[in-house]
Amino acid sequence: MGIFSEFRKQNSNFWRYFWKYSQIIILIQLMITYVLVPILNYLANGITFLGNVKYLSYTNVPYLITKKPLVVIGLIVILLLILLLVFTQFTLLLISFQAIKSKASLSWWDYLKRVSKNVLGLPFKAFGFFLLYFLIITPFGSLGISSTLLNKVKIPQFILDWLLQEHLPLAILLGAIYLIVLYIGLRWLFVLPLMIFENKPIKLAINRSWEMTRGKTLHYLGIFLVLIAVVSIMATVLIGIVILLQWLIDQAAFLGKFDFTMAVINMTLIQFINIFISIYASGVAVLIMLSHTHTHYFYPKREHRGHKWFWGVMAVVVVISFVTYNVTYFNDWLLEPPVTISHRGVDDGNGVQNTVSAMQATSKEKPDYIEMDIQETKDHQFVVYHDNTLSNLAGINKKPSQMTLNELTSTKIHENGKTAYIASFDDYLAASEKLNQKLLVEFKSVSGNSNNFVKHFSQKYGTRLYQDKDMVHSLSYKYIEQSKEYMPKVKASYILSFNLAGIPITKANAFTMEYTTLNSRFIEGAHLQNKKVYAWTANDEESMDHMIFIGSDGVITDNLSLLNGEIHRLFNKSSYSERMTIYVTQMQDPFN
């Protein structure tokens, strides 16, 4: 069967039982989002609290392994539990869909019995396979073959940027690995159905799936590409029509009395379209996985209650929640403009990072803060520099800590077609004070810093930073705690490169979180502790909008002018159609 014939077949199957498939997807996602995820977060937080672990980061992994083995064991148990729950989710999806398309009249009890049988029959060694398997199918997440339980399994954007900008061979290697993973994912497409419906052991299921897809890799890739195209076109057309309708209403003066009401209605329609498209993508993707599955159910025909009251109540709740959100959104009651922070003092390559000249140019655009980095020199002074070595910007294979301040400030660095001298912190601070420009100073955690790095800095600059209303932040938990000890009045933010679990216990006033895994749940938890959250580093409209919509208190960016433009569009009385367009740019999969 050809690519388009196979897609049409699964598409037709989906529409034949659209409402039944939708019920399964919605109920499973509700269970995960509102029951399982909160329980897992509570367990992880409880383990770290009982183990007196104040934060989880790659920086304290050796400490946890050597000093807190019970905490590590507890977190591993939670990981295994997550894998078991993801397997349960996929099993329930596959069994339910297969029963529906086979016209079997199964109750939820029937589904749960089948799922329990598969879950309880798993050997312990299966967990190793599932860890690999679910990581491999992660690239298919945008097509419904994913789980909210694994939504943090992603490479942070700053690592991708670092690879592309400074280590292109490694980036190419990563791209090759991704293609290999994609290939393996396609060849393992039928592993789970074979395990669930034919009771095959993992090894035999892998071998069988490999045989079934031999010579057909491009065939199945083509089916998924068609699904991507259909979903993209469907979303563009449907949402585009709604926004166009709102634009026409905005332009018609005689409809001015109804434009707000219609904006709320149209926005609600867009939100339902988003849910519908997500269900469609998930449903067709699962049906593709089941395309070679044949089962025979011998259950007596019986009528099950449709629970219309349940779905009616849920529909009312969803509509009320959407309308409430949209009313507050269009009235500017929901969102607040974030603090704007220029990353390394540049805006869209207008200078050499961390230099006085770049800071002076960027300051003209009135950012709330300019973020910059400091390290300690060989003679225990402070230099404004980010990288561990001078090789990238100056072509010198030395660390800043191996050179004196005079040597460093006499060194030219090159970037973005521009040249400047490395700045001492004294000069950088003096220039910022002259401009009345507030700074966000990052303590770089590098091997060349002395043990008294933060103490020495605090004694020398603490008073001025407080008077200037500057802030500090760092990836080093120790540096932040020391900063609050030696400069208690200077606001400090603890940088997290990955949102693992829970809110760190710290004296910091805020958190700086890499935006890729930052979510509203973390922000709400931080706000309960009266701590702000700054998103780092959002450089495109979509990521900026998303950080604003989830409630970030500030956005750190390399494209300050773009961020200012997005804030102006969002908070300066744009038309309703423009506000809807902004909402769509940050709109996420409602089930992930």
TrEMBL record:
Keywords: Hydrolase, Membrane, Transmembrane, Transmembrane helix. This is Glycerophosphodiester phosphodiesterase. Its EC number is 3.1.4.46. The chain crosses the membrane at residues 21-44, 70-95, 126-150, 170-197, 218-249, 269-288, 309-330. CDD domains: GDPD_memb_like. Residues 338-567 form the GP-PDE domain. PANTHER family: GLYCEROPHOSPHORYL DIESTER PHOSPHODIESTERASE, PHOSPHODIESTERASE. It comes from Companilactobacillus kimchii. GO terms for molecular function: glycerophosphodiester phosphodiesterase activity. InterPro entries: GlyceroP-diester-Pdiesterase_M, GP_PDE_dom, PLC-like_Pdiesterase_TIM-brl. GO terms for biological process: lipid metabolic process.
